[in-house]
Amino acid sequence: MKSFIFYSVFTLSLLLTLLNPTTLESANLTSVKDTLQTSRLSTRARVDATGTSVGSSRVKIKTSASAPANTITTNNLKAQDSIIVGTGTYTIVGVVDADEIDVSPVLVSGDADNDDPIYLKMKPRHVVTFTTTTAQANGYFRVLLPADTTLPNDGNPDDDGYDFNTSVDVTATDIANYDFVTGVATVSGGAGCTTPANYHCFEVHYSGAGAIGSTIILNIGNTSGTNTPIAPATGGSHTEGTADTYSYLVRNYNATNSLVDSTTGKVAHIEAVRVTATVDPTINFSIAGITSGATRCGVSTDVTTTATSVPFGVMALNTFKTLANDLTVSTNASGGYVVTAAENDQLGKGGATTPFIPDNPGNNTLASESVSDEWTTTTINGFGYSIQNVDASSVPFQYTTATGNCTGTFCSRQFADAQASETPGTIFSSSTVANAENVYVCYRLSVGATQAAGDYENQITYTATGTF
Fold first, then answer.
1. Residue 204's pLDDT is what?
2. d(CA 443, CA 307)
3. Which of 77, 235, 255, 367 is the most exposed place for a label (fewest CB within 10 A)?
4. d(CA 211, CA 357)
């Protein structure tokens, strides 16, 4: 059995409205919120070399905090995450336990040393929205996101703020009285972004008269993660399951660079919640009868069949009878399925080996268990089959096949003969999961004047195999 792991990530947006006037006597922007693409924390861990080695897929993380790494469990990681181990990029293929993961490809030299970094870089786009409370002509808005006091722009997750991540895209949506130009992002401490300290600045200028009560939408970063700040990692005092909150600032400046309106908000980050479930492997296969008079493989069936019997009945000489079964498969096997068929022997009198009705040779006497041949001449006697595909992913041939030895009226084959050690023939198949895929198998029989009188029979065994 395999475990399939699903993840649910909670996005939190907490708003804080100032209750007292600021010392600048500025008004508060209202309805301020920062909607994150995901609130999931980044990961900033370190390799424990006692359980990690070159050439292995197993990575063990240190379970005690040692600056600058504070993530000490795997609880924020999931299968298919792309992570950095040492200097290499790896994909998590499974979370083993609270301090071990398996990755692909295997670890290379330089990525399995003690204290090598392990980074999961979450890069959520920020959509900052707010409502104006004053009309400022030809001004600009500035959003300030908290930055770490050290290395706020090294491209790795920080434990006390957002990493600038080299370059950030900033855009705003034009509305009446606000015609925005391309935004500018400035790293913490950069020119024009020094007050207050330890904040990254994201600024969009506009032309227009401004207006009271306008809803402004600013985008910081991209949904693809390119040119987007890196979310904080678990901090030194972080409690798993409890969000870490960070204050951000939203400001409106006038044309003379004076701060007019300002509001502080809060945004929260928390671990992903790992939900696990086990789905048992299943495969269902059924055979159903088809009534007389149904059109299958381009002809009307002559006799009603059941799931366990194909009763041709009394045969007229040099005359075809065609009967059919309905075969259906469902499976959750990731590698799909294959349905094969084989007869225990040719149709023998009384079920014996002789005398027997031979397998269908085809019009060109080229038919076999693996080679198709057209079969439309009633005086060419024997027993064989064709296929009508309903919705199966793949069939080896159909009655309408018009290539090779077939012209497309009733392309046919012989059933593989188990008595002759022939390999069972594929009837239909799929390379992935399947939901009620089915085909019709059309049995055809013709006998000649030299066929000994009596009752003839054999058994066809269908086998459905899933690849899990």
1. 98
2. 14
3. 255
4. 93
